[in-house]
Amino acid sequence: PLFFVVGGYANRAAWEAVRREGGGARRFWAKRFERLLRPVAVYVTCWAIVDLAVRAGGGRSVLEWGMVVFVPLWFLGVYVAVVTLTPWTTRLHDARPWATLVLLGAGVAVADVLRLGAGVDAAGLPGSALVWVFAHQLGYVWRDWSVPGTAVCRTVRWFGERSATVTTVLVGLGGLVALTTFGPYSRSMVAVRGEDVSNMFPTTACVAALAVFQLGVVLAVAAPLRAWLQRRSVWKAVVAANAVAMTVFCWHMTALVGFLLAYEAAGFTLGDEPTAAWWLARPLWVVGPGVLLAGLLAVFARVELPKRPAAAPGGRPGGGRAGGGRVAGGPAAVTLHGGERGDRSAADHERAA
After folding, report:
1. Can you give the pTM of this predicted structure?
2. How many CA atoms lie within 13 A of 259 on its CB side?
């Protein structure tokens, strides 16, 4: 859920920037979706070609054996839907930020009670949607946390920033522990074989509680990380990583499946119990898929990377700050790097987002 919390921060900043420039929803959607969808289009096209080639050679469709490689697509589809709602959800946040969160949380709870208590399976889909909108709204709260004049900032100042941060952590963690201890929920936030209830889909109240906890943790570590990100080398690394974030997101499961096939082809067998040998092999399952992912990035990152601006007279690239437009998916780093109180202006951060 932190992905959606971070996205909420970035999308609120981007919407504010578009509105200041006199634009509306169409301009906002065009800017946000161009970054998201271009790498996805290449990813889907490549897999479609592979699937056609395999079937033409008499093999089975990837839809029969490798649906896991498409897992990122459903997640991205939900995110696109939530981003589409930004012009309206920001309006609700500006009018009643806390009431909006409470109503969304109540809707999640009602959906879970209907599905898990009364057996109304149809409640799962709207409940899932409410969870992700809730997480996205938390990003708006993060955005306004220290912005004077906002309802969120007034509440934070009334509590005291440290107390407000600790309260956020405790509410999220306490809610998560209570739900998984006394409720019908799994303690795993991802799907696990043998569990009766998956928290991920249909998405449950546990994920909403986890989002609150994660926001609290981010707020708690913001100050030291902000200082760390003042280092130019660190900031450049963050911007560079962010520039290929969507490519990594699209292809990481492909790299994992590719390494799995190579592992089994070499005669090894996957373990299904957490033995000592299983734990000792974990570094291999980080490095191996990582190497394959690096190769995929070498091929496909250029699709996402921005075109270099045309050289201005004197040989310097034109158009403002270097890399400014490529902090699109990194509002966490943008915020921690200084926000409204750091060495970059609020306008710079909104342009970056």
Report:
1. 0.82
2. 19
